[in-house]
Amino acid sequence: xxxxFLLAGDNWRDFSSDPQNPDWIDTGGFLGLVNIAQxxxxxxxxxxxxxxxxxxxxxxxxxxxxxxxxxxxxxxxDTFRFSTELVERSRVADDGLYFHDSAQFGRNISxxxxxxxxxxxxxxxxxxxxxxxxxxxxxxxxxxxxxxWDTIQFPHRxxxxxxxxxxxxxxNWIVVGVCPIDETVHLLYDMxxxxxxEHPDNFFNYNISVPGAATxxxxxxxxxxxxxxxxxxxxxxxxxxxPVFNVDADGNLFVKWRFGGSTNGNMAMARYDxxxxxxxxxxxFGGGATRWxxxxxxxxxxxxxHMGFAIRTNATPTPLNEGFHYAYSEDPAGRTDWRRLxxxxxxxxxxxxxxxxxAEPTALGVGDRMVFLPSWTITEDGSIHL
Length: 386
What we know:
The protein has strands at about 1-5, 15-20, 20-25, 35-40, 40-45, 50, 65-70, 105, 115-120, 120-130, 135-145, 150-155, 170, 175-180, 185-190, 205-210, 240-245, 255-260, 265-270, 280, 290-300, 305-315, 320-330, 340, 355-360, 375-380, 385. Mean pLDDT is about 85; it is low at about 1-10. The protein has no helices and 27 strands.
């Protein structure tokens, strides 16, 4: 959550303070009495919680205030401490793929959260090996308490932007997921709205391991079946982009993806139950009268499915993403019973994104667009954090 503006002037100097205790600043009706001893982390007496107010966000017009931290006021302000401790540092490889020359969407692969996952006592990490004359899919595994990474080289090589191996595509990331039911390891990779006609061998790239591979004693290519271009044969997997894995409370593995384009896209999901993949469930439809595409996804949190995304559309002047849209479902399969924030039912696929709009960050004066996907979560008390 956030407050749009705090009339901060030049850092905190324009607010009144007690000369005997300069760490306490009176901000009046904005955040009340605050302690700035650990600036940019401040304690607000009125809110009863910490806030984050970075100096670089302040100007003559105000400041952006982020209020993520709760807790009781400390008896001694000098005890404020926000610190992290580096437990260990581990180098997986020295030869990750980097686009030195020609590239689309940036020179680094946009490795989202699913490029790294954990299961049991193991950490799994994916990357492409460089340079541009190599580009192989690599999957490394390490025991959490160990030091050495074991790495598998897969036959597939990053196909490049629209199939041109000389031009890197930063959006063709690799995701890894583990199904706890049968301990299979799943890989989806190197796809960016490709069709079977254009790229018959590479439009959708999927590997599944044999059962038990996640915790197998050795980590080797023989644990995996050959690459295939489908999850199940009777479904369409063309024009897929941005796959993301989720695991529900029963150990089923879900995958969400977008198919279509940036302003004419749809969000879909499927479930692996330890035996087979389900058919695709269409969550959103952006190909109606107003063409739009979702930028975000689904998460299984606190026993429910949650859907949260920004949208990109040609119908507004916003150059990239805008808005935050949210719905939830208590259906374990995520196929039915989707509801808006207020509890009103909403039918799938959602064609009118405005029904789910709950926030417009760009209206707060912090910019006219969201360049990336919105990051969000739901805490145990049901609070939505964007």
